[in-house]
């Protein structure tokens, strides 16, 4: 009952033979018999259809499956005859659908009049169908609103008549599609044909379902009657999908088919075209893509690299045929099988790029692959604290949200809740960092003595730890070798956008190899949210997605700098498609798979306008599927107020976006938190600790300066972990799936339990020019329950450590009612490009194997490295005084040297340490040999050159075997230190049987 309309056509047609020919999807004509009624299945390129059944459940009809009362029944791809399909006690029959073949299927002979003669015969049926649908719409609205004289019995009779007329029209169109190659039609003609065919199927299914409900309406339960009335009002309202079906039928009836047809095949409503012997007899019946043989050739040279993206639901066969016809698939294709969408990167002229969406209904957008602007520092997109910055924005005090005790979260009765099974709390940890203690502190009167955050009790948490949820962290890269990111008793997958999209316009010789690593900011975010040791949700699954890459300012980077590219529109679309596809894969396996998205970054609107269309589509997907999206508010002055930043500008008080500000150790506002301004876009949701959050970044190194450890990014990562933590409680999970507003229930849960940690006098501690604060609500993990008498829906009484009870709703709806009816697609059989599957029951992807020997999921097997050469990568971190030659920080890694990107990034040894410059670091690496061959010393000489000493061999960083990746420059962690990166190759023999060796000290 919820089909989504395809693109509508106008009643005009391009003139004559110059009309662009259509790309035609294959005919798909199948039905599913559900509870004794035959319903049309949508075509593969069309979205699913939902039908309301007599028991109040919703059946989801897709081209390749039917989801009925929580059970999925796959439709065989080679279905020829009627076939019963069952699962979990549910039964359907899949069968070929009705198809009325035109008389005489030749193009011009046999009395049938060819394609256009057959269309002419169908035109008369369109008029009857329009009237029938209009009558049903009026009668249905009368039943739903009680404003008319129609009763359910009268409506049932009206539906019977209308379904006969619409069914005949759809059957005729099915027969035409099977009998003739529709590639003769222009794109406008095909739109008119497919519009009435697809919307006709959807409206027919809806009317059949309505007829069954109307026949026994008085016998339905009050709950199902209400569902039916609500559904009628939504479907049959002005501008609703029933009216859209009427418009499609009118467009088909009024379309100027005479301008499409050859002179000998002009269709008429009487269906009496005159066949002649001059019409082509060579046309053959086909169910594959057809196109004009008069393929226009471009008249100008390619003017740029473009990205062509298809609409969700497009079959891969259709898209590949299109790229082959366009330019023999000379470009680069990326596919997302579950989302059923594709991307093609290729050179086009501007004229061709403009015309393609008009010619092909399945093309969503064609746009230029944005060339990197090398004047933009992409690292500024990550919200890093800036030393000495102060807020200059004057937001209103209303932007600091208070607890709302009247929202629906507190409104359920005692009868609707049940006890939570006893859960084990972990041992209270007095040595935990302050930020963990803050979020587990029981609400208290902070105006009393000794009640400020410095008196928070030891950190307490639940043993669930986010298990069963996946946190998607979208950031600048990740160090998968960190113990915190190990796949121990969980899944850790990753994906990264290709250099074609992240570094367009940058010479390939200057690009870093595409891979998941290199992200100092992203690594910290992943550790805070879901680190196995330090994270808020240590048992959650992680899916880490790299949005950008780095490049050198010259081919060889001698005395050069390394730069980070900004997020580009193409890379963002690739990343968001990949995340959606992975989520849908998990939902195909488990319709209650839980997800949370973390994006601790943003761009000013003036720089990010091209990103907004992709963000908007993605946020609609998240709203529809009830997926929280956690955004960092941003840090001033690098971030503007929320309405001036994207994606922060998309947040509202009720959608699934959770925008997070930061507080200091004393609970006061982190002064650089970007604010929302009343009356403008963006909405600040909640606060979390954001000052001095000490977690490791790349190589296990902890940023030395507090500014490298602070900001709203850290606060947002903390909230992402807490969302996963909440989801892992069975009773809270039950509530979050049973709410009437699934898209914002998590937001309500967070805000209703957040509380101000600042004494009354502390609220006056604010940035200059900031109005007085009345609230500063910081997240709470509920581990210690709520205060007695607290009227929240999820009241958790404090109890002895080890067990507790709670009162939260636990009744779950049927599985079918929790899913989006517009976004369920077929099961994927393969991952997206540049991704390989981890050996697990979930679907996670990676291109760098995990090297943790303690993980329960073994790393991907890789071939033994070629035992010829190794490469050693040295990163030095020194203070800003070049004359100070005392202790500096070192991170040293050794890899095989190989042209194979996977092998080339397989770490074999690593050392992180603080050591004197002149004596250096002894790098242990047993893979290289025994005795002195198992140790390499790296030091800095008086002339500032690196010296490498390995057994009897020695060389310097100036040797031809070495390359200076980046000379001394300000560290991206903090401006108080400098950083230099060097890489050398050397002859070696590697013992590939040994596990990776790591030694990290501080």
Automatic annotation (TrEMBL):
Compositional bias annotation for Low complexity: 844-859
Pfam families cross-referenced by the UniProt entry: Peptidase_S8 (PF00082)
SUPFAM superfamilies recorded: Subtilisin-like
Active-site residues annotated for this sequence: 475 (charge relay system), 521 (charge relay system), 713 (charge relay system)
Record keywords, A-Z: Hydrolase, Protease, Serine protease
Compositional bias of kind Polar residues: 265-293, 388-407, 833-843
Composition skew (Basic and acidic residues), residue ranges: 294-303
Hydrolase as UniProt keyword: yes
GO molecular function, one term: serine-type endopeptidase activity
InterPro entries associated with the record: Peptidase_S8/S53_dom (IPR000209), Peptidase_S8/S53_dom_sf (IPR036852), Peptidase_S8_Asp-AS (IPR023827), Peptidase_S8_subtilisin-like (IPR050131), Peptidase_S8_subtilisin-rel (IPR015500)
Name by which UniProt lists this protein: Peptidase S8/S53 domain-containing protein
Source species of the chain: Massariosphaeria phaeospora
